[in-house]
Amino acid sequence: MNVPTLLRSRFVWLPCVLAACLWGGAVQAGGTLRVLAWPGYADPDIVKTFEQRTGAKVEVSYIDTDEALWARISKNQAGDFDVFAVNTAELQRYIQKALVVPINVRTITNTKRQLPRFQALAKIPGVVHADKVFAVPYTYSEMGLIYDRRQVKTPPTSIQALWDPRYQGKVLIYNGGAHNFALAAQALGNRNPFELQAAQWESAVQQLIGLRRNALTFYSQLDDSVAWFRSRKAALLFANYGSQQFKQLQAAGLDVGYAIPKEGALAWLDCWVVTRGAKDTALAEAWINYTLEDGPGRVLLERQGLANTTATSPYLRPEDKLIWLEPVENVERRNLLWSRILSGDRATKVLAP
Hints:
The chain is of the alpha/beta class. It folds into 2 domains: 6-134 and 268-308, Periplasmic binding protein-like II (D-Maltodextrin-Binding Protein, domain 2), CATH 3.40.190; 142-264 and 320-350, Periplasmic binding protein-like II (D-Maltodextrin-Binding Protein, domain 2, 3-Layer(aba) Sandwich), CATH 3.40.190. The protein is built from 13 helices and 16 strands. The strands form 3 sheets. Strands 1, 2, 3, 4, 5, 8, 14, 15 and 16 form a 9-stranded mixed β-sheet that branches. Strands 11-10-12-9-13 form a 5-stranded mixed β-sheet. Helix 2 (44-54) links the parallel strand 2 (32-37) and strand 3 (57-62). The longest helix has 14 residues, at 201-214.
């Protein structure tokens, strides 16, 4: 995906009375808000509306990987940005390094519009620390199973479908050690896919060796997964990008279905956070509040295929279970072992010191 590095919107003034009506008097007209976001989270028309309401100028920079996000924020100790979006699992290291600050949720009045599961912040792993709220949920996607309706006549109901011999050589898998060991843990019936015990590593490795044998290939980028699904006639796809991938495959003219496994779907939840170096905390919180309105939410769904936190997702059923990503017990070990599995090593070599 081609990502613009910087969008500068024009400076627009509105009367202070209007700004006060819109934002409850919390934000003064003018100022500059520096936003770091994923593609689709701060489109030009969305930014323009915010500028018109507040009289502020918004500078948006984009990132496309968790690693790029960490590099941008940690490089200057969060001094270059006021607000950014990060998933709840990644959020923990920003909190540990004191790169983000608690949010005054009372100023984010649109949280009342969110679905109950997103208002219950204490039940979302990693959002609340020491009774302080560090993040406001914005958008999310579950990692479901996408299937070609011509080859898979019955919608898959279990994560075990990825290992089904009927689809040998026709399964597209995400190239990531942390997520794939979580898949293996789910397939083995582990209750916590983010915490493998010492006795469980060998079984998980064997499970992933079996997954490698069933795979057509492994992808990292969303666009690659769409192109390969079509050109290589894949039957099944582990959708790391979830409904976003499903929407793109449909847009490409493919007859695909989308299923959430009975074990539950791993799911990422992106939240807005305020940096330690924020120059105008009130303006940053006003931005967060604005993105919880109907307009930005519709943009996420219609353009990106991503659910928002204020409306029911059209991709989920009430009974579908989501498992929010959490930090894993040892990300370095998961990635190291996964690289050895990809290389075709036997289990004894994979697990060797």
